[in-house]
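Worked Example 4.2. Consider the chain below.
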Amino acid sequence: MDFTAQPKPATALCGVVSADGKIAYPPGVKEITDKITTDEMIKRLKMVVKTFMDMDQDSEDEKQQYLPLALHLASEFFLRNPNKDVRLLVACCLADIFRIYAPEAPYTSHDKLKDIFLFITRQLKGLEDTKSPQFNRYFYLLENLAWVKSYNICFELEDCNEIFIQLFRTLFSVINNSHNKKVQMHMLDLMSSIIMEGDGVTQELLDSILINLIPAHKNLNKQSFDLAKVLLKRTVQTIEACIANFFNQVLVLGRSSVSDLSEHVFDLIQELFAIDPHLLLSVMPQLEFKLKSNDGEERLAVVRLLAKLFGSKDSDLATQNRPLWQCFLGRFNDIHVPVRLESVKFASHCLMNHPDLAKDLTEYLKVRSHDPEEAIRHDVIVTIITAAKRDLALVNDQLLGFVRERTLDKRWRVRKEAMMGLAQLYKKYCLHGEAGKEAAEKVSWIKDKLLHIYYQNSIDDKLLVEKIFAQYLVPHNLETEERMKCLYYLYASLDPNAVKALNEMWKCQNMLRSHVRELLDLHKQPTSEANCSAMFGKLMTIAKNLPDPGKAQDFVKKFNQVLGDDEKLRSQLELLISPTCSCKQADVCVREIARKLANPKQPTNPFLEMVKFLLERIAPVHIDSEAISALVKLMNKSIEGTADDEEEGVSPDTAIRSGLELLKVLSFTHPTSFHSAETYESLLQCLRMEDDKVAEAAIQIFRNTGHKIETDLPQIRSTLIPILHQKAKRGTPHQAKQAVHCIHAIFTNKEVQLAQIFEPLSRSLNADVPEQLITPLVSLGHISMLAPDQFASPMKSVVANFIVKDLLMNDRSTGEKNGKLWSPDEEVSPEVLAKVQAIKLLVRWLLGMKNNQSKSANSTLRLLSAMLVSEGDLTEQKRISKSDMSRLRLAAGSAIMKLAQEPCYHEIITPEQFQLCALVINDECYQVRQIFAQKLHKALVKLLLPLEYMAIFALCAKDPVKERRAHARQCLLKNISIRREYIKQNPMATEKLLSLLPEYVVPYMIHLLAHDPDFTRSQDVDQLRDIKECLWFMLEVLMTKNENNSHAFMKKMAENIKLTKDAQSPDESKMNEKLYTVCDVALCVINSKSALCNADSPKDPVLPMKFFTQPEKDFCNDKSYISEETRVLLLTGKPKPAGVLGAVNKPLSATGRKPYVRSTGAETGSNINVNSELNPSTGNRSREQSSEAVETGVSENEENPVRIISVTPVKNIDPVKNKEINSDQTTQGNISSDRGKKRSVAAAGTENIQQKTDEKVDESGPPAPSKPRRGRRPKSESQGNATKNDDINKPLGKGRKRAVVSQESPGGLEAGNAKAPKLQDVAKKAVPAERQIDLQR
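Applying the procedure from the previous section yields the following structure tokens:
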């Protein structure tokens, strides 16, 4: 029953009345006119309404009878009646009339129909009040209109749109939460029929629906939003075209005037998509167009919209519309920063709601994790961490890898977010195990990575790592047993570098505690100038350990004042740092100190925050006596096999060993906490275990913590002594060392104890059984060092009769000729290990005596130098293997360096011996160079070695391995910064500037390079280029800053050296010429790199008299020892261009940035005694071309495999053709050795290829002569090329002088010997008694 059929003209009906000409009313209803009262009118209308309600369409007679009444009710009198009840009743009647007379309405006038429907629409507003007495009639009206679809009549009206708009607005405005579902259903029926059965939806009508979706309206009336939502869902097929047209007008054509909702277009798209994606089938391509807009703000708006569409939980837009998805992903690389930022923010929701899209997002997030904008990199981390915290399965390893990378970001905010995010993931999935073992395994690397960050220089990074460790890795608020279990298994599962970082963290905290303890001690002393100065220095040191040291200085000074004024505060702080402070006491102390310093009127108190940082660093929140006891119990369980080791992913052996290592570290920082019988009993049990490492750690713990054992725990003492004796005699070398030191540290009768070990060991030494020598030699060496007064004299006979004569000067076994330059420790022969320990024993013996009254040190130094000259084969019987020779060279070089740390021995080390020691850093074996450099750096940073030893790092410029050069440069940076910082922090250090100021290394470096065995001809451009590289390697670091006009100071030093002579060879003109040449190269480099070097030097530098003579009066040396053309070649690498000025000042490429290759063949194989065939005209070019390929090498020996870019097969190398041939040489006898040392292999295989080649040659004939090594004695001229093969196996006479190469020698001889070391045989060269003491000391 509806009005969908076309209504017929009703002209005849309009005039129909009753027979007597009056309007017919239902029975009992009197005439309704304006003459009656309102109440009466309402009463009569109710009866009319009842009549019409009861009528149906089939009552033709009644329809005809009441037609005049129907027309009468549509009169203006009723439509504009002021009484709402009257209007309601009339509207109900009219609705029934439309129902009864359907499909033909009794009203033919379009204007009348419009008035009627507008009238009915107005009455529908009454639906708003559900508590109204008339609500049922309003509901009846709505129901009737919806059922009959009465409004469909309006389709024939020209301005029907006005009626529909009014209807829709009315219905949306009246709907509320008090309406039941029937009301909503009838409204939907009414509106959907209009939309679906009409010719189309106008923009205004569409606006009346869409306006309810706008967030502002949505929030005001949730029911109208729900109504619009259901309506759109119901009419999607019909209304979709209208919606598409609207968005096309606004988005594509830019006609925002078509609708008032144009400015809300993106909000509407979002809501429509959520309602039904089919509503936007034609709109999505328009969004792709908008994503490519030139307007950044417009792209941003579209990105925000699509982020919501793609990211919503139930959206499958990415799968359904791949082109749009790919276009959207492109916005991750948008040029507009806010667009990229919005894209990154979207990724978090997308990962959580659509894990299947993670693969698509990964590559784009990778690029954004390196975005130049800090905020974007930060949000990438937040995005990934947020998703990972929701569910770890949502992020793949690659995404977590991006966060890992950002822990090293250049910006602190990004680093902090990455570190904290990873820490939260570790705590959630590893510590709490919220997602099982698989998830814990996935993020198990986090603990190592976070601790590795402690290696960074920034104090902020270090402090954050400490905070993360205390809150996330091992939460300090756990109960002691749980906390220690967490620490125990964490320590056991860390990688070696993380363990070192954790140990360093405890060490730094302990050091800061000691600084604060010393500060408190200064407060107890009477005020004086010295006290104030010491206190100021201590405050500066403490400030350096806090964030933003500049501001921290002021806060630390203020805190120091408070400490001076408040005795209670001092006592709290003393309790906090006392060795006996428990974790619970520490927590109370920190809170109490913070409470005292808090200011209620100042909510943000930077001073208090800084003090809290200090307190958190020094408070023992993890370790106390109770904690150590818990750790020992855990270790005991591991020993007994009752622990949860396997469940924690750690083997019992690893748990025990790591547990002991952990206790060993804590014994340094918290020794007092170990003092209990229970703890020591457990350690004694560990001493009896077969694991050598465990026993060694246990002895060291006793050594660090057992000072009161003798007095407080006699039972432990009586058990411990025999075990220590046994370890010192028959334990491993490390155990023996620790046992001797333990006895010396904790027992009062140590002389008796040590004598009981010394005497039987010294009598039982037997060189024929070297495997039983190593431990006794270690013990004897340490005993003689710790108790020199008692054992120095007895040791002298042992040294003379056994160590030197019987052990070092004899080769009892023949080494394995495998050609290797280095072998693992377990493959080294016992005899060589014994010789290494014998060398160490000599050093320890001398270090214990600390005097040279017996001239033993001179003899030892001559012995060590002879070992270096003979390449490690002291007897020169050729019985020792190459790898064993490497071990002995390293031992000899390290021994000289160790002796140099003692002032009395440093004074007697001759320049020749120093140079021999320095050349070890250019050894042919990679491991020798590596270990020697590490030992050198370690001694220098502790300021143990004289400054001249820092000059040795200049020789690292010649190292063929890029990583070694980079390491050396880092060592230089560290050393220089430490020395400068030390001078700043210690005002009294100015008196020792000669030994501290880094710039004073320049004269030592110049002298060392002048005596470089490779520097044989002062005018050879290639050799000068090597010298320049070595100089620049050091000068580049020194000249980073021009502190106190240091550039001019260094220039002045080089100029002053030219006014002196070489103290080592003052009468040799050739040697002095080389010295002056190196000075000119240094001046050339300094002048080319600094415009400030021409200023006046602030002070006249002092040159070390050990290396340079006093300048003679009236001596002037203004000669230039390098030509102008050579200068240009050195600085540019190219010949001087004709007619071009200023080429000398062309900047150098910085070492380490663009790798520099010293010679053409040197980089291609350090131990392949061959080089590429080049002529001088192509040398420089190939030097540059080969640099990149060569620099890929990491090391040269078998233990250090190399990454290869291009490799020349070794088999095809002709040992003659591939040697570097000088332009004036035509025979094999004229072949010059490439350098005085062998280079490292950057090709496949190892450093020992040459050695293997030699072995193959041995099968068919005598071996070819080996290439001279740096520091090795050359063959005499009589042993020329013709006789080398015959005499190769004959040992050279000991003490024989080096052959000195004559400049006038023939070409062949000069080429053969040009790069042989000129150092004299140290064993024959006596030290002049009148030699001056080095000014450093």
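The radius of gyration is 47 Å. The CA atoms of residues 941 and 974 lie 7 Å apart. Compare this with Example 4.1 before moving on.
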